[in-house]
């Protein structure tokens, strides 16, 4: 049974239902510690909770190795999580929603535009592959590939028959975006999707992404290490540190009034155009701790400017400061014992 | 969907020249590869047209015309230890020598590539199972393994080719596994997995096209090894049996004449050398031509 089009995906839970709810997501990678060594694991993602609302862009920021990309790969199920639940539009993935149906609705764009296209396939074949896998007839799938190429700004008659090495980086990333959209997904995960592009091309691709989001009613998870880009794209921002969520909240709240000292340090590390605002000392020194052996208590305590004894003993929960803005810092949680913590409201 | 439905119907796209056409044009530009290919074609033609080309029957001897030097009237390349015409025997010898050089490789390619690709794509336990079994065969030097196998099975053309096939399967499997493992890590395989495709579909549509080329290049280089091993087996009396003409066997029987008439005794060796060098040059050229970014 070869269909001409994919069956349409319907919104089940209504606009108030988050599109994606992630609870307690864990992924540890075992590392070999010698034959008699202790069993150890890199705690790449260690208990991550967040949700993504319908139609929003959730920006995810953090240093290299903080678990951003692992989280993305867990969400598209390129690897299985060790623990945790993923609920997509009210349905638990793997139970109520089969993996195959889930995959159609969640697609990903990778950072390396060259490695993410099969060098032996023409770009129309690369884009048509997904719909064909889901039962669309070859001709219809190719037609759809051409429509999508036109939609991402590549003239189908010029580009459809080309091979990836004949395109520029920006063109290839447009192809990757078209490929991700070929299955008509509802959620697109952009993992450093524009980081490898030069600035002028990056701006074009970002605008394309915003247009596509509006036209197709998409929801984005936008992962980047570039804070300016995240500020431009995101509605809400999640800051990750060492496999955990450090802070999550509305974009302006996080950028203007960061509640976690790590967020503050990240923001201070952004290059400033105004010479008066430039600073000599780095806001954050040292490397992040080894994720095999995270420090006890708060994971940020060895690098934190406000560290107190309690920070080395207590692992701070992700506490809400105001609705929709939470931070995993003892200074943000009342009655935590930190001298800067807010008073317990009587 | 509504946005897409509004766009005009798909038109046939201009197609870039295909991958293999590019490979062909890059090969054509390399004089060394073209020459090697020409030699290979000439050798194959020589084998096919042996009855027409050979001036004499390959097994017709003359006890009074033994070990004539090169250039003797009627014997342009001399005669062997039984007075048979060397030129005719060399021409006929191409048949069995090429057969034994060429047949084991594609058979081993089929089995070795399948094993290696399955191991490389599946990874984990399946990989360990297949590759450790392959490693057992690696414990023996390939010549020793071929000799032991054909020695056990008995001499003869079929057994010799079978043992050469067994010798090559692990080598091809090893290369196939490493190439597949490399390709599997690339993002386009992840993208295909994220689209919900089944493993078999991914292997057929995304893995094969990217791994067969390098494995094929490696297999081409094995043709010369196969010829030399086959000659070695015949030399030891495990391959072709006299009086059939085969270069390795001829080298063996003429070895006693090496002090009397060294030039004639070396001729089969020279042909083995030319053939194997041609196959090696061709496979090197193919490797270069298959690199898209060159």
Automatic annotation (TrEMBL), chain A:
Membrane topology type: Peripheral membrane protein
Source organism (scientific name): Lichenibacterium minor
MF GO annotations: ATP binding; ATP hydrolysis activity
Protein's GO biological process: peptide transport; transmembrane transport
Keywords of this entry: ATP-binding, Cell inner membrane, Cell membrane, Hydrolase, Membrane, Nucleotide-binding, Repeat, Translocase, Transport
Family listed: Belongs to the ABC transporter superfamily. Glutathione importer (TC 3.A.1.5.11) family.
Protein's recorded name: Glutathione import ATP-binding protein GsiA
Purpose: Part of the ABC transporter complex GsiABCD involved in glutathione import. Responsible for energy coupling to the transport system.
SMART domains associated with the record: AAA (SM00382)
Segments forming domain ABC transporter: 20-267
The keyword Membrane is assigned to this record: yes
Residue ranges, annotated region (Disordered): 273-295
Localisation per UniProt entry: Cell inner membrane
UniProt-listed Enzyme Commission number(s): 7.4.2.10
EC class (word): translocase
Catalytic activity: glutathione(out) + ATP + H2O = glutathione(in) + ADP + phosphate + H(+)
UniProtKB/TrEMBL annotation, chain B:
Residues that span the membrane, as ranges: 31-50, 96-123, 143-169, 215-238, 258-282
CDD domains, per the entry: TM_PBP2 (cd06261)
Domain of life: Bacteria
Keywords, in A-Z order: Cell membrane, Membrane, Transmembrane, Transmembrane helix, Transport
GO CC aspect terms: plasma membrane
GO biological process: transmembrane transport
Predominant cellular place of this UniProt entry's protein: membrane
Annotated localization: Cell membrane
One Pfam short name: BPD_transp_1
Residues in ABC transmembrane type-1 domain copies: 94-283
Protein name, as recorded: ABC transporter permease
């Amino acid at each position: 049974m070869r269909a001409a089009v994919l069956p349409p995906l319907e919104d089940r839970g209504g606009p108030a239902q988050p599109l994606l709810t992630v609870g307690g997501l864990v992924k540890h990678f075992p590392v070999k510690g010698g034959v008699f060594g202790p069993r150890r694991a890199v705690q790449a993602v260690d208990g991550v909770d967040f949700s993504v609302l319908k139609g929003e862009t959730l920006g995810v920021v953090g240093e290299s190795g903080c678990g951003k990309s692992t989280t993305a790969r867990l969400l598209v199920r390129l690897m299985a999580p060790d623990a945790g639940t993923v609920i997509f539009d009210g349905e638990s993935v793997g139970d109520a929603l089969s993996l195959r149906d889930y995959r159609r609705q969640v697609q990903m764009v990778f950072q390396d535009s060259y490695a993410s296209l099969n060098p032996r396939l023409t770009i129309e074949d690369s884009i048509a592959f997904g719909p064909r896998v889901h039962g669309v007839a070859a001709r219809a799938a190719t037609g759809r590939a051409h429509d999508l190429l036109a939609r991402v700004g590549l003239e189908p008659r010029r580009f459809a028959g080309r091979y990836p090495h004949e395109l520029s980086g920006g063109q290839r990333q447009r192809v990757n975006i078209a490929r991700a959209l070929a299955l008509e997904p509802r959620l697109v995960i952009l993992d450093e999707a524009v980081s490898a592009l030069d600035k002028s091309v990056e701006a074009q691709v970002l605008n394309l992404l915003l247009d596509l989001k509006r036209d197709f009613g998409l929801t984005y998870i936008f992962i980047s290490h570039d804070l300016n880009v995240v500020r431009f794209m995101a509605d809400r921002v999640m800051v990750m540190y060492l496999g955990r969520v450090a802070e999550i909240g509305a974009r302006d709240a996080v950028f203007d009034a960061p509640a976690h000292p790590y967020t503050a340090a990240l923001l201070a590390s952004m290059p400033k155009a105004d010479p008066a605002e430039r600073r000599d000392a780095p806001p954050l020194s040292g490397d992040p701790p080894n994720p095999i052996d995270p420090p006890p208590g708060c994971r940020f305590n060895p690098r934190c400017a406000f560290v107190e004894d309690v920070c080395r003993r207590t692992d701070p929960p992700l506490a809400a400061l105001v609705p929709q803005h939470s931070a995993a810092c003892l200074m943000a949680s009342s009655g935590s014992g930190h001298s800067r913590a807010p008073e317990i409201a009587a | 969907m509504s946005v897409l439905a509004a766009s005009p119907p798909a038109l046939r796209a201009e197609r870039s020249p295909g991958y293999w056409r590019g490979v062909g044009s890059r090969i054509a530009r390399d004089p060394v590869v073209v020459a090697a290919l020409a030699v290979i074609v000439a050798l194959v033609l020589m084998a096919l047209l042996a009855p027409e080309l050979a001036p004499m029957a390959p097994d017709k001897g003359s006890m009074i015309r033994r070990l004539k030097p090169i250039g003797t009237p009627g014997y342009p390349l001399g005669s062997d230890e039984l007075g048979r015409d060397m030129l005719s025997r060399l021409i006929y010898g191409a048949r069995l020598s090429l057969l034994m050089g060429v047949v084991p490789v594609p058979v081993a390619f089929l089995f070795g590539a399948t094993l290696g690709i399955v191991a490389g794509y599946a990874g984990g336990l399946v990989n360990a199972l297949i590759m450790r079994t392959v490693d057992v065969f690696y414990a023996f030097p390939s010549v020793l393994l071929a000799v032991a196998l054909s020695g056990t099975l008995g001499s003869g053309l079929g057994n010799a080719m079978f043992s050469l096939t067994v010798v090559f399967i692990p080598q091809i499997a090893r290369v196939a596994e490493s190439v597949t493992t490399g390709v599997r890590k690339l993002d386009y395989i992840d993208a295909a997995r994220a689209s919900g495709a089944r493993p078999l579909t991914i292997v057929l549509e995304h893995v094969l096209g990217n791994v067969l080329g390098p494995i094929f290049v490696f297999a081409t280089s094995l043709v010369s090894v196969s010829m030399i091993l086959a000659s070695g087996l015949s030399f030891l009396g495990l391959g072709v049996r006299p009086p059939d003409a085969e270069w390795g066997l001829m080298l063996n029987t003429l070895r006693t004449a090496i002090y009397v008439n060294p030039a004639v005794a070396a001729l089969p060796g020279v042909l083995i050398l030319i053939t194997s060098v041609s196959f090696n040059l061709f496979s090197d050229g193919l490797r270069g031509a298959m690199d898209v970014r060159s």
